[in-house]
Amino acid sequence: MVLRLRGAGVLVAHASLAGFIPAAETSVDWREGGSLAWRTTLEGRTYDVEGRVIRVEPERRLAFEYANPLIKTRHRVIIELSDDGAGTRVSVSEDGHRKNIDLAHGEGSWRLVLANLKAIVEGRTDRA
Description:
Elements: E1 2-5, E2 10-13, E3 25-28, E4 35-42, E5 45-57, E6 61-68, E7 73-84, E8 87-95, H1 100-121
Antiparallel strand pairs: 1-2, 3-4, 4-5, 5-6, 6-7, 7-8
Protein backbone atom coordinates (compact mmCIF):
# COMPACT_ATOMS: atom_id res chain seq x y z
CA MET A 1 0.00 0.00 0.00
CA VAL A 2 1.38 3.41 -0.86
CA LEU A 3 -0.13 6.36 0.96
CA ARG A 4 1.39 9.82 1.10
CA LEU A 5 0.54 11.44 4.38
CA ARG A 6 0.67 15.10 3.38
CA GLY A 7 0.94 16.74 6.78
CA ALA A 8 3.70 14.42 7.93
CA GLY A 9 5.49 14.81 4.59
CA VAL A 10 6.10 11.08 4.52
CA LEU A 11 5.57 8.36 1.97
CA VAL A 12 4.63 5.05 3.54
CA ALA A 13 5.20 2.20 1.14
CA HIS A 14 4.35 -1.32 2.24
CA ALA A 15 4.24 -4.30 -0.07
CA SER A 16 2.56 -6.40 2.59
CA LEU A 17 0.16 -6.13 5.47
CA ALA A 18 2.76 -7.47 7.90
CA GLY A 19 3.80 -4.06 9.19
CA PHE A 20 0.22 -3.15 10.06
CA ILE A 21 -1.53 -6.27 11.28
CA PRO A 22 -0.41 -8.98 13.70
CA ALA A 23 -0.17 -11.79 11.15
CA ALA A 24 2.44 -14.44 10.56
CA GLU A 25 2.01 -14.58 6.78
CA THR A 26 0.60 -11.97 4.43
CA SER A 27 0.09 -11.63 0.70
CA VAL A 28 -1.40 -8.63 -1.06
CA ASP A 29 -1.80 -7.15 -4.52
CA TRP A 30 -2.86 -3.52 -3.98
CA ARG A 31 -4.39 -3.10 -7.44
CA GLU A 32 -8.17 -2.93 -7.86
CA GLY A 33 -9.38 -6.53 -8.09
CA GLY A 34 -6.14 -7.75 -6.50
CA SER A 35 -6.16 -10.42 -3.81
CA LEU A 36 -5.16 -10.15 -0.19
CA ALA A 37 -4.65 -12.86 2.39
CA TRP A 38 -3.20 -13.28 5.83
CA ARG A 39 -2.79 -16.01 8.42
CA THR A 40 -3.39 -15.11 12.03
CA THR A 41 -3.55 -16.96 15.32
CA LEU A 42 -6.14 -16.24 17.99
CA GLU A 43 -6.36 -18.14 21.26
CA GLY A 44 -4.13 -20.90 19.90
CA ARG A 45 -6.09 -21.44 16.66
CA THR A 46 -4.83 -20.44 13.23
CA TYR A 47 -7.13 -18.75 10.72
CA ASP A 48 -6.64 -18.01 7.02
CA VAL A 49 -8.29 -14.79 5.89
CA GLU A 50 -8.81 -13.99 2.21
CA GLY A 51 -10.23 -11.03 0.36
CA ARG A 52 -9.88 -8.66 -2.57
CA VAL A 53 -9.12 -5.02 -3.20
CA ILE A 54 -12.20 -3.11 -4.37
CA ARG A 55 -10.96 0.43 -4.90
CA VAL A 56 -7.66 2.31 -4.79
CA GLU A 57 -7.51 6.10 -4.90
CA PRO A 58 -3.88 7.00 -4.09
CA GLU A 59 -3.51 9.47 -1.23
CA ARG A 60 -7.27 9.38 -0.64
CA ARG A 61 -9.10 6.04 -0.28
CA LEU A 62 -8.57 2.29 -0.12
CA ALA A 63 -11.45 -0.19 -0.02
CA PHE A 64 -11.29 -3.96 0.31
CA GLU A 65 -13.42 -6.86 1.42
CA TYR A 66 -12.51 -10.05 3.23
CA ALA A 67 -14.10 -13.16 4.68
CA ASN A 68 -13.73 -13.55 8.44
CA PRO A 69 -13.45 -17.30 9.11
CA LEU A 70 -13.83 -16.86 12.87
CA ILE A 71 -17.37 -15.46 12.74
CA LYS A 72 -18.13 -16.60 9.18
CA THR A 73 -19.02 -13.20 7.77
CA ARG A 74 -17.83 -10.96 4.95
CA HIS A 75 -16.61 -7.48 5.71
CA ARG A 76 -16.06 -4.41 3.58
CA VAL A 77 -13.44 -1.95 4.80
CA ILE A 78 -12.93 1.63 3.64
CA ILE A 79 -9.85 3.57 4.72
CA GLU A 80 -9.94 7.28 3.92
CA LEU A 81 -7.27 9.97 4.22
CA SER A 82 -8.07 13.65 4.58
CA ASP A 83 -6.10 16.78 5.42
CA ASP A 84 -6.33 17.78 9.06
CA GLY A 85 -4.33 20.90 9.74
CA ALA A 86 -0.66 20.00 9.66
CA GLY A 87 -1.47 16.28 9.69
CA THR A 88 -3.54 13.67 7.94
CA ARG A 89 -6.70 12.14 9.36
CA VAL A 90 -7.07 8.41 8.77
CA SER A 91 -10.67 7.15 9.01
CA VAL A 92 -11.70 3.51 8.90
CA SER A 93 -15.17 2.06 8.45
CA GLU A 94 -16.01 -1.62 8.35
CA ASP A 95 -19.35 -3.31 7.85
CA GLY A 96 -20.48 -6.89 8.36
CA HIS A 97 -20.49 -7.11 12.17
CA ARG A 98 -23.61 -8.95 13.33
CA LYS A 99 -23.10 -8.88 17.10
CA ASN A 100 -21.85 -6.24 19.51
CA ILE A 101 -19.01 -8.49 20.64
CA ASP A 102 -17.85 -8.87 17.02
CA LEU A 103 -18.01 -5.10 16.58
CA ALA A 104 -15.97 -4.56 19.76
CA HIS A 105 -13.34 -7.03 18.54
CA GLY A 106 -13.21 -5.27 15.16
CA GLU A 107 -12.81 -1.86 16.81
CA GLY A 108 -9.95 -3.19 18.95
CA SER A 109 -8.27 -4.68 15.90
CA TRP A 110 -8.47 -1.40 13.98
CA ARG A 111 -7.06 0.54 16.95
CA LEU A 112 -4.06 -1.80 16.83
CA VAL A 113 -3.67 -1.42 13.05
CA LEU A 114 -3.87 2.38 13.25
CA ALA A 115 -1.37 2.48 16.13
CA ASN A 116 1.01 0.40 13.99
CA LEU A 117 0.51 2.77 11.03
CA LYS A 118 1.29 5.73 13.28
CA ALA A 119 4.47 4.01 14.50
CA ILE A 120 5.58 3.39 10.90
CA VAL A 121 4.93 7.02 9.90
CA GLU A 122 6.84 8.26 12.95
CA GLY A 123 9.75 5.91 12.22
CA ARG A 124 9.27 3.91 15.42
CA THR A 125 9.80 0.15 15.67
CA ASP A 126 7.45 -0.46 18.63
CA ARG A 127 4.57 -2.21 16.90
CA ALA A 128 2.10 -4.73 18.29
